[in-house]
From TrEMBL:
Domain HIT residue range list: 10-117
Residue numbers covered by motif Histidine triad motif: 102-106
Protein name (database record): HIT family protein
Parent-protein residues present: 2 to 119 of 142
Domain of life from the UniProt record: Bacteria
Species, as recorded: Rhizobium mesosinicum
Amino acid sequence: TSAAYDDNNIFAKILRDEIPSHRVYEDDKTVVFMDVMPQAPGHVLVLPKAPSRNIFDADPASLSHTITVVQKVANAVKEAFDADGVFIAQFNEPAAGQTVFHLHFHVIPRHEGVALKP
Ligand code: 5GP
């Protein structure tokens, strides 16, 4: 079982514009912004606006829309960063590496022979 959604998590504050972010895409249900500690150039985060802590409590319709945006963003960063591939990741609960508790997908352009930054 996971904890409840915390309205004061950092991405909730970004969604409310209480903390600045570099937004690159937005629609009625989704926001995309640059990761502040990119693991490679073009590392972006895709978030549903609907409050969910992670995959476990996400609304399926919201999740479906979000993954469609992830696909668009993967194509966009591949093109924009002339990437050879795109890494997509998503963490649920601290045991799996989640540190910010609003559901998000990492989308990271990758180049042959170039390692991710730690
Ligand atoms: P995760 O929960 O997926 O393990 O990691 C959260 C991600 O959010 C990390 O890649 C981290 O660099 C990013 N992050 C944390 N705080 C901020 C912030 O205030 N602004 C932005 N743009 N990204 C953040």
